[in-house]
Fold each of these.
Amino acid sequence: MKKEKARVNTYNQAIKHLQENETNLHVFYGDFNGKINKKRMFGNGVFIGTNKRLFVYTWGAMLSLNYIHIEVSTIEKKKIIGNYKGNKFTISVPFEEEAQEAFNFLTSKKEIATDPFNFEEYRKIKQIVETKRTCTVCGETWYYDKGEPMKNFGEKMENVGSDASNMGSDMMCCTGCLPAAFLPRHQKKEVRDLNECPNCGSKAADKETVVHDV
Ligand SMILES: [Zn+2]
């Protein structure tokens, strides 16, 4: 179930990079491992076979393989072994049937696009990872990125500091000491509990990791 969600998420991210006139012919999930343009490439992601290219979208990178240069030679259970411009690559998929389907697709005759297609064989992409929470009580969704819990922790520390200094100034005030009135009294920042629904305050929420391209 979680894995299915992750797949859908990756797929939704990937299709944003497809061109308008690209037709989505075949989709499969797995690992790509090989050398492309002398660069070692590997990663878990989604493979989208379009009418123009084999688009590989992994964490942190995407790759456009031109069908003209893809030579798929062997299939071993869940592994497809091929060659791209003289470099060996493997595609591993979670299920044997998927490997067979992917193999059939890759070895099938495809119409090569006649209109110019801007081939960029390997491109690094910047991604941010966020945590998405969905309240199981009211359905509210909220996000926080990996940096935010740290900032939240920082704010908590700051509050500890201001509590101490406020307490200090109060104590000083009790003695009637005037300069104490000039001690900084920090406004207490509201610390948002990231586990708490901002709408209804419930702590019952589903947690999911989502990736966005930036
Ligand atoms: Zn709620």
Amino acid sequence: MSTAPNVYIVFYSLYGHIYTLAKQIQLGLEAQGVNVKLYQVPETLSEEVLQKMGAPPKPDVPIITADELKEADAILWGIPTRFGSVPAQIKAFLDSTGGLWASGALAGKLTSAFVSSGSNHGGQESTVFNTLTYFAHHGLLYAPLGFADPHLFDVEEVVGGSAWSAGTIASGDGSRQVSDKEKQVATTQAKNFAKLVLAMHKGKAILEKANKVDEPQQTPVVQKQKEAAPAKEEQQPKPATPPKETKSDKTDKGVSKCFCM
Ligand SMILES: Cc1cc2nc3c(=O)[nH]c(=O)nc-3n(C[C@H](O)[C@H](O)[C@H](O)COP(=O)(O)O)c2cc1C
């Protein structure tokens, strides 16, 4: 196991607000000593539609494939609100992770999100809430921000974010930029998330080491059981016909046929 864990920031950003937050979160994570890689999800809109929506060129950040998620120790998702939920681009990418689901490749990895919306009542909380089904099905462990940063209590000015995650308010025409307070909230989320990731990474390394030490003591018992096994088989006459398929066999077959890619 490498000394520093890898955190992937996977985002979609049409007008750049989520990208700004992603870079802020990257700085916060790196300050805690974790490795960070930034990725965008693939665009699903045509150039023509993007032009009509007034989207600027995409940032120079690699586009992720589902398989690459395996290499991450933890994943942070950058998500701009669409109708109070995740945009089609994020959903399309998550829908391409069926193979990872089938192999349990993401199970047990820490995860969280950060968001942006046009208005301050536009659905930042529901956007993160709507990621939970994906996280649960993958066995990803969602770490909320909580009220970890004092700016979340600020009522003097508009501040994006909530107990669910850091966030920014872009305004209806996208003209508002990520504020210093929102950057501070994002840094707090990054710091707390990194600490969790580091604790988990170190804990896993300790467990792996302890299990290696335990191995020689377990081997003789396993060997004894193996040696005893043929004698048992000899005592039991083999059935003339193969055993009937049980209900659980059928279920297993059904599951393995299920949407595995
Ligand atoms: C189709 C569409 C739906 C949107 N739905 C919402 C919404 O429900 N609530 C809201 O506050 N903003 C909404 N917005 C505004 C976006 O959330 C905002 O443009 C985005 O957060 C800016 O992030 P970005 O600069 O990273 O793209 C919507 C924008 C589009 C294009």
